[in-house]
Amino acid sequence: MKNVSIALLGCGTVGKGVVDLLAMNGPLIEEQLDTKINIKRVLIRDLNKYEQMEDLPDSIQFTTDFNDIIDDDEIEIVVEVMGSADFAKDCIEQCFLRGKSVISANKDLIADYGIPLLKLSQQHNVDFQFEASVAGGIPIVRPMYSSLNSNRIEEIIGIMNGTTNFILSNMTAHGSSYEDVLKEAQEKGYAEADPTNDVSGYDAARKIAILATLGFHSAVTFNDVHVEGIENIAKEDIEHATEMGYVIKLLAIARQDEDGISLNVHPSFIRKGHPLANVDGAYNAVCVRGNCVGDVMFYGQGAGSLPTASAVVSDVMNVILHRNLQMTGKRGYVWHEAKLKPQADIASPYYIRMIVNNAPGVLAAVSKVLAENNISIRSLIQKDETAEIAEIVILIDKSAAGLVQASLQKIEELSCVRKIANAIRVIEV
Questions:
Q1: Distance from CA of residue 270 to its chain's centroid?
Q2: How far apart are CA 212 and CA 369, in angstroms?
Q3: Between vectors from CA 172 to CA 171 and to CA 174, what angle results, nearest 5°?
Q4: 73 Cβ contact list (under 8 Å, min separation 6)
Q5: What domains are there in the chain, each with its CATH number?
Q6: CA distance 326 to 73
Q7: Which residues form the catalytic set?
Q8: Cα–Cα–Cα angle for 287, 183, 239, nearest 5°?
Q9: Most CB atoms within 10 A, among 31, 89, 261, 310?
Q10: CA distance 406 to 401
């Protein structure tokens, strides 16, 4: 039986999961590869913390010096699970220069530097794989460039952040406020003390950038994604969605058509009958539409120690297979310059909630502004009146985002309108 020595950069939640998975399923993995995987070194920050842990193999050598790994010729594969993009990028580049293949779970790194790193790995005949960078244990990265690569991918749409899905699911199930459910998510460990990366949509934006790069064969990055978070979602919006047969989800959406590519992350109304509407809690799901295969859906745990380690170790196994077949670094990729569709041109129906004076002529004034921009009203309901104010909920037909925003600005300037409380896209799929 062959032997392969690997190193881990980091031993947090995912790194420890890799250690545990190899201990659990080592014989099964060895049988498939005719190769034994040995974790030889692990790069960490605090040596004392890990040397005192009793559930780690004695054979692992911990180090705080990356040179111990890069200078070790026995180590052929390096697994990067640190999370810091800049330091990780430097380490990975050095690995490639020294002929070591790399597996990364670092979505920040891949979203910003994925293409340059893939090109560098090919120049040095090594592999660079990153299945765990999107949706944890769900196999979605490799299908984009392998299982589905006979298709022209037209759309990728998914729930790619467990924290926001947990928050919106609980708001829907219990009628709770955003603030109360966020606090619960933090107490249960689903949300960080500073939840900005999740609730503002940045985490999902990095993931959709990675999938769009692979699925559309286009050079896009995180900076090309238009991002809106869920901070402005109120329980009133959840209630109205339920009444109208929708649920609210934070969706990451990538589309390509003749006009170009659009990349968006935003809260969305989606019909209760759609498969994504039933993805609750901290689970993730991704729907992909190919011009031949039609619609396919990937569903599962988008985070967690062992689910994410499952994706990481799958990449390790794939690299070992390439090594054993002497085809390391031979996988080719194709990218074209991305033609991005202007955000103002992206059209969809919208749900609009506004607070207005409870007075005659308000509906006529609002309707007039929409009509002037050729925006058709699908439905209009006046809700929750008092002597002085009322809440108006409007569904408008498919309209360009630029026209919608211009209309809302004019509506908010009306003396009878107190504020636009929310405007949320309706996804018709």
A1: 18
A2: 36
A3: 70
A4: none
A5: 2-137+305-324 (3.40.50.720), 141-301 (3.30.360.10), 344-427 (3.30.70.260)
A6: 18
A7: 207
A8: 60
A9: 310
A10: 9
Buried b (16+ CB within 10 A) or exposed e, 212-230: bbbbbbbebbbebbbbbbb
Q: Over the stretch 160-212, which tens digit does the pLDDT of each residue have? A: 999 999 999 999 999 999 999 999 989 888 888 899 999 999 999 999 999 99
35 is in an annotated binding site: no
**Residue 15 in marked binding region:** yes
Instruction: Beginning with the edge strand found earlier in the chain, give each strand of the sheet holding 2-9 in spatial order.
Output: 61-63, 35-43, 2-9, 75-80, 101-104, 128-129
Candidates 2, 3, 6, 4; CA nearest to 77 is 6
308 annotated to a ligand binding site: no
Give 46-74 pLDDT, tens digit per residue.
777 766 666 778 789 999 999 999 999 99
Question: What amino acid is encoded at 265 in this protein?
Answer: V
Secondary element (H or E) of residue 44:
none
Distance from the Cα of residue 404 to its chain's centroid: 27
Amino acid at 173: A
Residue 91 contacts by C-beta under 8 Å, 6 or more apart in sequence? 9, 66, 70, 78, 80
Q: Is 12 annotated as a binding residue?
A: yes
Q: Considering the entire predicted model, what is its pTM?
A: 0.94
292 in a labelled binding site: no
The strand pairing partners of 80, in sequence order, are: 9, 104
